[in-house]
Input
Amino acid sequence: DFFAALDETKPLFGVAEEELGECYSGGILHFSPTMDSILNIGRQDIATVRNPNSMRLLTTLLHGPPGSGKTALAARLAIDSEFPFIKLISPQDMVGFNEPQKIGQLDKVFRDADKSPLSVVVVDNIELLVDWVPIGPRFSNNVLSALRNLLTKTPPKGRRRLVLCTTSKRSVLEQLDLLQYFTGQIAVPNVNSRDELAAVLRQKRSFDDREIAGALEIIQDLTGSGDVGVGIKRVLTAIERAKEASNPVERFAEIIAEAMAERRLYEDVRPAAY
Amino acid sequence: DFFAALDETKPLFGVAEEELGECYSGGILHFSPTMDSILNIGRQDIATVRNPNSMRLLTTLLHGPPGSGKTALAARLAIDSEFPFIKLISPQDMVGFNEPQKIGQLDKVFRDADKSPLSVVVVDNIELLVDWVPIGPRFSNNVLSALRNLLTKTPPKGRRRLVLCTTSKRSVLEQLDLLQYFTGQIAVPNVNSRDELAAVLRQKRSFDDREIAGALEIIQDLTGSGDVGVGIKRVLTAIERAKEASNPVERFAEIIAEAMAERRLYEDVRPAAY
Amino acid sequence: DFFAALDETKPLFGVAEEELGECYSGGILHFSPTMDSILNIGRQDIATVRNPNSMRLLTTLLHGPPGSGKTALAARLAIDSEFPFIKLISPQDMVGFNEPQKIGQLDKVFRDADKSPLSVVVVDNIELLVDWVPIGPRFSNNVLSALRNLLTKTPPKGRRRLVLCTTSKRSVLEQLDLLQYFTGQIAVPNVNSRDELAAVLRQKRSFDDREIAGALEIIQDLTGSGDVGVGIKRVLTAIERAKEASNPVERFAEIIAEAMAERRLYEDVRPAAY
Amino acid sequence: DFFAALDETKPLFGVAEEELGECYSGGILHFSPTMDSILNIGRQDIATVRNPNSMRLLTTLLHGPPGSGKTALAARLAIDSEFPFIKLISPQDMVGFNEPQKIGQLDKVFRDADKSPLSVVVVDNIELLVDWVPIGPRFSNNVLSALRNLLTKTPPKGRRRLVLCTTSKRSVLEQLDLLQYFTGQIAVPNVNSRDELAAVLRQKRSFDDREIAGALEIIQDLTGSGDVGVGIKRVLTAIERAKEASNPVERFAEIIAEAMAERRLYEDVRPAAY
Amino acid sequence: DFFAALDETKPLFGVAEEELGECYSGGILHFSPTMDSILNIGRQDIATVRNPNSMRLLTTLLHGPPGSGKTALAARLAIDSEFPFIKLISPQDMVGFNEPQKIGQLDKVFRDADKSPLSVVVVDNIELLVDWVPIGPRFSNNVLSALRNLLTKTPPKGRRRLVLCTTSKRSVLEQLDLLQYFTGQIAVPNVNSRDELAAVLRQKRSFDDREIAGALEIIQDLTGSGDVGVGIKRVLTAIERAKEASNPVERFAEIIAEAMAERRLYEDVRPAAY
Amino acid sequence: DFFAALDETKPLFGVAEEELGECYSGGILHFSPTMDSILNIGRQDIATVRNPNSMRLLTTLLHGPPGSGKTALAARLAIDSEFPFIKLISPQDMVGFNEPQKIGQLDKVFRDADKSPLSVVVVDNIELLVDWVPIGPRFSNNVLSALRNLLTKTPPKGRRRLVLCTTSKRSVLEQLDLLQYFTGQIAVPNVNSRDELAAVLRQKRSFDDREIAGALEIIQDLTGSGDVGVGIKRVLTAIERAKEASNPVERFAEIIAEAMAERRLYEDVRPAAY
Ligand SMILES: Nc1ncnc2c1ncn2[C@@H]1O[C@H](COP(=O)(O)OP(=O)(O)OP(=O)(O)O)[C@@H](O)[C@H]1O
Ligand SMILES: Nc1ncnc2c1ncn2[C@@H]1O[C@H](COP(=O)(O)OP(=O)(O)OP(=O)(O)O)[C@@H](O)[C@H]1O
Ligand SMILES: Nc1ncnc2c1ncn2[C@@H]1O[C@H](COP(=O)(O)OP(=O)(O)OP(=O)(O)O)[C@@H](O)[C@H]1O
Ligand SMILES: Nc1ncnc2c1ncn2[C@@H]1O[C@H](COP(=O)(O)OP(=O)(O)OP(=O)(O)O)[C@@H](O)[C@H]1O
Ligand SMILES: Nc1ncnc2c1ncn2[C@@H]1O[C@H](COP(=O)(O)OP(=O)(O)OP(=O)(O)O)[C@@H](O)[C@H]1O
Ligand SMILES: Nc1ncnc2c1ncn2[C@@H]1O[C@H](COP(=O)(O)OP(=O)(O)OP(=O)(O)O)[C@@H](O)[C@H]1O
Ligand SMILES: [Mg+2]
Ligand SMILES: [Mg+2]
Ligand SMILES: [Mg+2]
Ligand SMILES: [Mg+2]
Ligand SMILES: [Mg+2]
Ligand SMILES: [Mg+2]
Output
């Protein structure tokens, strides 16, 4: 099995790879078949870029609600490509950078990538990279322009590049007129159904089957809803926080219910349709 | 009793702690059972962060009306954690700082925290830190971006961090799209009922029971309302100001009534619902 | 009599005091009982700050229409406090200062105040200090932020401070979300009734009783109104300007009538209600 | 006769005065009785400032449509005052100045004035000084603030100052909230009636009586209106331009008619009412 | 004949004049009587400025649709004046200039002009000079202010100046409140009728009479309109482009028809009315 | 055949030409007769500029949806001109440039061009060059102004220039008021019909006729539409990506269908009408 094999991948070329590995240190849980098809499409893009008779550049956007696992999946694909150059660009590593410094950093990574015959560049959280704030709205026009030009700049002859971007605000990218510059888009979903939530809980072994059933029931009671719609990251956090309470099952259900209530803040969950 | 025991906590490591202690030098009055449950949830977050098998980062927001005691409670939780690194970040200590200086200061505290295996960082009055003004609205986009990135940046391996933030403008943080980056939220209420107000007055021993009854009655007369809805800080100030008047009971009632009239300015009191 | 005694207060510690004294060199006329109650409430705040068992910080706002005497009253209270540190901060003394210079100046005064066990800081014309212009509206966000932080910063242990601010644009401060940071507010009224205007004229001895009656009648004729609603400063100016005319009584009435017509420009006269 | 006498005033102290004299080198034509009453009110303000027992500061605004003679009248009053310090501040002399340079220049003139026991400062075309543009609208906030503070800053003891400002955009000053800082306002009118226009033409001796009648008739025909409403400056220009045409009377009428058509652009002609 | 005589004018003082001459190197075609009356009014303004008993400053605006010949006509008038100082200020010569550099350049030209007893300054394409963009709208406030002050600044004694400005966006200048500062305005029209278009074609001798009739008919067919309304510059370009096609008459008609379709973009054609 | 002959054109003067050649390294497929007429009109403009008796400057805009082949066609025309100076200006080569650097670069290319008797300058993706973002909207005013001036600046005597610009946002240029400065406009269409799509597939030889028919049918099924409307660039990419899938025909159809769904984002496809 291809994906099983991938689980054994080990660091090949130092820091960048280690950092990328950290992004899915919690592992990739297969709580729904969508996980496989996401990894499958990503693998095809890698193969297209590797093919010397094809385009020299593909740019793919992974989008989905907060904490749905976008960074983990992009990191996994990057490492699985086994391309000689892989690199993660993250806004969290640029605190205190001014615009020229950010753009310089972005530009440098793309120039470095162009020295390698095959490269994967992961640009994480584009909405944070451009300092997006919905009031106004405001954002860094200069970083956005730089990104737009870097995304569409064909690598020099003999160089081939895959760019993987992530965002939890696809509609923001639409407003910024950025979507048209991607050659492909992949939607990453929440833990959406009770069954998927149960699958996560079972795989994490924090609750036994009876407790899982109990938790699902309390969630149903608190929210009046049979759906879930919470990111995998938040589910994993809820498990850990609940452990410290005197009543972990109830506390877990409560935290999930709170997360579901806040969900209305994240309206960016629309799957790509045609 | 846990909280009684906490009352004896003494400074462990100098300045930061002393400063935090100053934040509740007026003490924590238990005028309603909500106080206990707030401290209880905070304690669980501390335990989760301390657990080496859990997430390396939790971020909790204390929100509530002006003067409701948010800073006092956050300071108390920070000191009670007994973590080796505790630090208060306050906009009042940054008068005259330009944006890069503020961001540098924020960044430094988080870097220092990352040198310690366990840390609590208190970020006080986020709305002031980002220089929020409702007209426009205006705010510091750069400080906001820095904060957003610092709040979500996982500490390095072997480091674990709790971030406690306070705000009297939760709706502002919602507009700034900042709420989604907190792993938990705690609402801190006003002195809301006549009984709670009486409890405060009794514990402060400034008026005898008859005077307290008289004050409540005058407030009812002046405002036509049986509720109170004034922050504990303002109640304590009213007691002191009234002492200088020739008619302290009437003056106290008058000041509370004025505060209630101004309350419409602070519409940020909604308890977290689900 | 308390206020009569105050009239003899003399400069104690140099420049700041002399400057403050200049602010009411025209004297404080007792044309209405409100004057006494304003001075009385101010005196209580001074006493609260002086009390070592009370809050270390009070901040009081004097607001009222242009020329109603806010600066004169604040200056008078500051001098009457006999606190060892008193200081007037006035935007008129900062022409040509850029934002950092203004903030530096503000910060310095508050730091100097913190060296004294007891201090009064008068911050005059806040709307001018923040460069408020109604078009836009525009204002200095940085000065506003600095002010907000300075107003709420508790003095260090053993230091106690009273801040007296003035503004003729209370509604502006409300829009700027600044009102909530004051522990108290005092409304300063215009010369509002015919009787109050007559009292001013009598005390200034520029017109005899018959002339006063004549002037009031002409004003009534010109404006069709029995009210006055003009600031004491403007009334005093009208008296002086009228002296140079061939027909002083008519000219005085005319100038007052013009002032009444312009009044619609100053809609900030609402007394504090509850 | 007072005003006749004034016609002989000669330069007393060099450049500033010469420059001011240039402003009415075309003379002051008495085409309507309003001219006398404007000069009369101005004279009273001068007398009030000169009186050592009165206010140390008066600020008067001359407002009226473009080319109505505001600068000429202010210059005339300044020179007539015979105060030892008189100075004209004009935006036309500050082309290419940045904001700090403009403010520095303004500040310097007021400081220089404060060295003299009696001073008149003329600030010409305030709307240009603050770089007003109706789109946006835009203007220099910093120059406006500086001006506001300079206008209201009382001169030091023993110094007395009259400030004369001009503007063709009174409504702009109203929007900028600047009107309230003037102690007096004077409206300067256009050449408004056919009789006033005829008076100007007769005094300039360019046309004989029959030609004047002819011109008035053509204007009536072209515009269908019996009013005029054109600034004295434009009328004088029309006379000169018409001289070069083959048919001066018709050409004069045509230019006036064009000016009347453009008038709708200048809606700032409202006389001060009460 | 006056205008015929002008055709022989030769360069008198070097570069500036040569550059101005370039502006009508295509010649001035007399395709309509309006051309004569435009040159006639311009000539009167020149005479007024030359007259030492008249105003020292006139400012005239030539406005009309794009390519209607404004620059050519202004250049022609400037050279015809035979004034010792003539100069063209063109935004195209200021690419890459920042605001202070542009203003410095403008200021310098006007200062140089003031060294000459008689000067003509042509300021071309004011809307480009102030960097006007309709979105926002945006423009350079500082350049606009400088221009406004330079346009209205009277030359020193003994110096006389004519300023000729051009714009294809008269309505923009109206919005910018700039129109009121001109002492005169001249409208420059398109090639508006079929007869005028035929006159141009005949004078250029590119088509014979039959071809001209054919072209007019095709235009009528393509557009359904008997009017033309295209700038002379564009008509001349159409003639040249058509020459390269296999079917010049049809191609000429097609290009004119395209130009007519785009015309709706240029709504600035309103003749000055009264 | 003219265009067949062009296919053999080889680099003449180094880098610029090589870079331009890269722009259509995928070749120019003749999938519709529009391709010929586009190249034909471009050729006429080249001939007009070459003619020494014609205008010294033509500026042509190629506009059309993203990936429709604008850059490829402009590059082809530039190389076919065989003018001694040809140059491509591309925003992708200016990442990290500030405004003055961009303008300096633009200015330099135009100055260099002016050293050559005949030049073609290609300005690619004007909307990116001016950093256009639809939110706000925002764009670089300074770059836009520079571009506007460079586009309209006549080359010096003896120099002749053709400027070819491309944009996928013609409506943006309309809003920016830039369209009026072009002497001609050419619309570049998508692969619009099923027949055109089939022609592309046949010429690329990736699918046999049966597969092509199958793909068209699936597209019809997925989208319910008989049209296509996808840029040639995207079609070529779809072919390459599909090759890596297990079911290339279905995958090709799927990718085209996705592209058609996204098309609503690109509303700039209106052909130039009259
Ligand atoms: N199927 C899965 N897909 C992705 N992540 C998974 C999966 N199963 C478990 N995880 C774990 O869940 C976490 C997902 O977090 P991740 O940071 O990738 O989410 P995200 O969508 O990038 O969040 P954000 O919106 O905050 O950027 C990781 O710790 C990862 O190891
Ligand atoms: N139950 C309580 N909870 C919190 N504070 C209390 C309580 N009882 C008394 N206090 C005192 O009330 C004051 C609360 O002030 P604090 O500054 O913490 O309020 P805040 O909500 O942070 O105000 P602000 O909105 O101005 O930041 C402190 O002096 C604290 O000692
Ligand atoms: N009862 C009074 N209260 C205040 N001022 C008085 C009174 N009687 C007389 N005065 C005189 O009136 C003047 C009031 O002017 P002051 O500058 O204090 O007004 P203000 O409200 O601060 O004006 P502004 O709105 O311009 O700041 C002073 O000269 C003061 O001496
Ligand atoms: N009665 C009058 N009042 C004012 N100016 C007069 C009068 N009679 C003749 N003049 C002449 O008319 C001209 C008035 O021009 P002035 O520049 O003063 O007008 P303005 O209102 O300041 O114009 P602007 O609105 O352009 O500033 C001067 O040349 C002056 O000599
Ligand atoms: N009657 C005419 N009036 C003006 N220009 C004419 C006339 N006849 C021919 N021309 C020629 O037409 C051209 C007019 O172009 P010009 O640049 O002056 O127009 P413009 O209105 O200034 O254009 P733009 O709006 O682009 O600034 C010149 O080449 C000029 O020689
Ligand atoms: N008929 C054609 N016209 C243009 N390009 C063609 C044609 N046939 C094949 N191609 C190829 O299609 C591609 C067109 O891409 P090109 O970059 O020119 O499109 P574009 O419209 O400039 O895209 P963008 O909107 O991204 O700038 C090129 O690789 C070119 O070789
Ligand atoms: Mg992520
Ligand atoms: Mg607090
Ligand atoms: Mg005051
Ligand atoms: Mg004037
Ligand atoms: Mg022109
Ligand atoms: Mg392109």
Remarks:
- The two ends of chain B are 31 Å apart (CA to CA).
- The pocket of magnesium ion (ligand 7) is lined by residues A 70-71, 124-125, 166 (CB under 6 Å).
